[in-house]
Write a structure and sequence with these properties.
Helix content: 40-55%
CATH topology of the largest domain: NADH Oxidase
Structural class: alpha+beta
Number of helices: 10
Distance between the termini: 42 Å
Largest sheet: 4 strands, antiparallel
Shape: globular
Number of strands: 4
Strand order of the largest sheet: 1-2-4-3
Order of helices and strands: HHEHHEHHHHEHEH
Length: about 240
């Protein structure tokens, strides 16, 4: 079947609750969709995510009760667990700095271009200031400092641990949506599930304490009854405000 355009994929994608268990997915094609997912935009290119592609029947069956026995999990051919790894921010900073080393010719600090200095300062100074916290105390100090400065000029304000957590989950959500649209483009179906026991999933996948489950995505090929009715959306005029 011919691949869909972006617009076609967006219109085709639905949250499919019942998959056809007799129609198998090509695991390599699903993996390619995950590869496209990592191209999604994300905050500061920190890429604080991991993707656990579950193809093992044994693990999938263990996941079903942790997804509260939803049909989207029970009938799925495969599952994708999108994981937020805010705890890896130091490593991601180093990875970005290594990449920056490949972009610029080595020079003494005094001879570096303004662009290179700005980029390096961003990862070497600003990102640590934003991400470092200690029992929430430093976060509140940053919050009050940035809020005070913000009285006089535009200022970034999402500096507490809970704010950065939201930022990381937003980036993971962008990757998840990219994955689902990539799947739709090749006529594969998905269903994002937030109703899960995230703690038990972390244990099953042997994830570290700092990892967080963003969502679990059921993957398969839809049955006609797997789409629960016509798509409903609030009138566009109510949600789009032109200024």
């Amino acid at each position: 079947m011919q691949e869909k355009s972006v617009s076609e994929a967006i219109n085709y994608r639905r949250s499919v609750r019942v998959f056809d268990e007799n129609k198998l997915l090509d695991t390599e094609k699903v993996r390619q969709c995950i590869q496209q997912a990592v191209l999604a935009p994300n905050s500061s290119n920190m890429q604080l995510w991991e993707f656990y592609h579950i193809t093992s029947t044994t693990i999938k069956n263990k996941m079903i009760p942790l997804c509260f026995n939803q049909n989207a999990a029970k009938t799925a051919q495969q599952l994708l667990v999108v994981v937020v790894r805010k705890d890896l921010w130091k490593k991601r900073v180093k990875d970005n700095l290594k990449h920056i080393d490949t972009l610029f010719t080595p020079k003494p600090k005094s001879e570096k271009s303004r662009r290179e200095k700005v980029i390096r300062n961003y990862y070497e100074k600003l990102i640590p200031i934003t991400y470092v916290d200690f029992l929430g105390v430093f976060g509140w100090i940053k919050y009050f400092t940035f809020t005070t400065v913000g009285l006089f000029r535009p200022m970034y304000r999402e500096v507490r641990a809970k704010d950065i957590r939201v930022v990381a989950h937003k980036s993971a959500g962008l990757a998840a949506q990219t994955f689902m649209l990539s799947m739709a483009a090749i006529n594969y179906d998905t269903c994002p599930m937030e109703g899960t026991d995230t703690l038990r999933i972390k244990r099953l996948l042997n994830l570290p304490f700092g990892a967080e489950i963003n969502m679990v995505i059921g993957c398969g090929i839809r049955k006609p009854e797997g789409v629960y009715g016509e798509r409903f959306r609030i009138p566009f005029s109510e949600v789009c405000k032109e200024i």
